[in-house]
Amino acid sequence: MSSQNQAAAKFRSVALTVAAIAIAIVAGGYAFTDIPQRLGLASASQETGSEEPGHEGHDHAAGEHDDHAGHDHEGHDEAESIELSSQARANLKLTTQAVSVGRFDEYIEVPATVVDWPGRTHIAITSPLTGVIKAIEVSRGELISSGRPLFILRLTHQDLVETQEQFLTSLGQLDVEEREINRLTSISNSGAVAGKTRLAREYERDKLLAGLKAAKQSMLLHGLTDEQIQSIQDDRKLIREVTIYAPTLHSDRSLHHDSNLHSRTNIVGDSGVRFASMQPPPLHPEHIEAEFLITELNANRGESVQAGQQLGRLSDYSEILIQGEAYQRDGEALQKAANSEQPLQALIESRSGRPQVIEGLKIVYIGNEVNRESRSLPFYVSLTNQIERSERIDGQQYVSWRYKPGQRLQLRVPVSGFDNAIVVPKEAVAEEGPERYVFVENNNHFDRVAVEVLASDSMNVAIRNDGQLWPGQSIAVSGAHQLQMAMKNQSGGAIDPHAGHNH
Q1: Dihedral angle at the C-alpha atoms of 485, 486, 487, 489, nearest 10 degrees?
Q2: pLDDT digits (tens, 9 = 90+) for 205-259
Q3: I need a surface site. Which of 42, 339, 345, 446 has the fewest CB within 10 A?
Q4: C-alpha–C-alpha distance, residues 38 and 59, integer Å
């Protein structure tokens, strides 16, 4: 063999050896590495010589269902993904929502308490006269309306009774004097009776009129109204019982004058007589019908009460206040929110874990003194209440208001904000050291995606809109911490019990 042929044979041998080594490397890389998956050349279920996780040792009959068959795993990294069954979703109470870009408002949060509205929530019902409680027409906890009878009071004040008797006596004597004066006037013109006799009768009449005026003033001081005194004068019968009614309010929530004294009056000898002037006053355009809750009853049937003594208390919880306790450093933010009429939020704890949010609250006023003990600045926010439960028993209505004085909550005062942020609930973000993750839904998997957090508060997190998440993607908005723990367990890493917690 010539030297030229020997060289060609040697070259072919080396080339075949190199080609065999290259084929072996490519085959090994395809079979035993994840390079094909990264390049999109094969799915995990098509790996040669290996079975899928969780399928080792299983014999799959022909046509048997494969849980991974038909899934599109393009761009799917098993190390950054977790598969959940429907049972796992239910156990985690997992909820999802679509990603959207919007505005994130930053708040300061301060502790607060629901309180009465001073001078507005409560109305004291007092006895207009001295007497004995004959009947109580309402019960504690009952919801009533304006004009509802509250108490029936039997008058027992001796001075008042004697003044009424004296008043009636003087009225009778005045009638006699008027008739006598009229008779003397007709005959004195003929000269049969001296004129001085008629003048003497007129003097007596004037004395009786003066006495009647004094008696009227005395009865007013004892608590009777002008209408009641006029009824005595018109009907010549003493007032023995007075019915006290729930008051009527003006449109500014102030009490109508003597509204609780417009009472049904029982007259001796005719208990069925009702005087129009004694009825609850007709509603005027500036008057409003109001509903009250009987919160106190301070008198018992048969109890003797004095004029001005409190018999009970009515409460109107339809409009109440939230008293916030801000730090001194937050005073400027409060003033800014009050001046610009920016809406506040209130958070109330609930059994579901995520607090109930009350939107659209307004600051009524800011306190002028800092509490010397807590060093906090009080401010007050109006709160429109709602009836959450109503029950009628024996014709009486009992209610429970949703927001109750003494109830604790958190007030959120807006301070600033920014646009073009992805806002998600704080339960949607898991923490792992300096990293923050959200979980994007991908069929029955959830892919972990690292994100940058711009700001956060007790409810929401603002994520930078940098392309890591896209509007319309579905993400888990609850259970992110549990998903993070499950992924660590899946990868075989030690479980950090504090991973995913927002401290």
Answers
A1: 90
A2: 888 889 888 888 888 877 677 888 888 888 888 888 888 989 888 776 677 655 4
A3: 339
A4: 28
Amino acid residing at 501? H
Say which DSSP state 279 is in.
Answer: S
| CA 290 from centre of chain | 20
Can you give the length of the chain in residues? 503
Q: Give the chain's end-to-end CA distance (angstroms, integer).
A: 84
- pLDDT value at residue 191: 61
Per-residue pLDDT reduced to its tens digit, 435-448:
999 999 988 889 99
pTM: 0.65
Buried/exposed 355-377: b ≥16 CB within 10 Å, e otherwise: beebeebebeebbeeeeeeeebb
Q: Where are the alpha helices (DSSP H) in 33-69?
A: 35-38
Structural domains of the chain sorted by starting position, each given as residue range(s) with its CATH number in brackets = 81-104+418-490 (2.40.420.20), 108-119+318-396+404-416 (2.40.30.170), 122-250+287-314 (no CATH)
Q: Work out the burial of residue 16: count CB atoms within 10 Å of its CB; fewer than 13 is exposed, 13-18 middle, 19 or more buried.
A: exposed
The three-state secondary structure class of 363 is strand
Give 133-171 as a DSSP string.
Answer: EEEE---TTBEEETT-EEEEEEE--HHHHHHHHHHHHHH
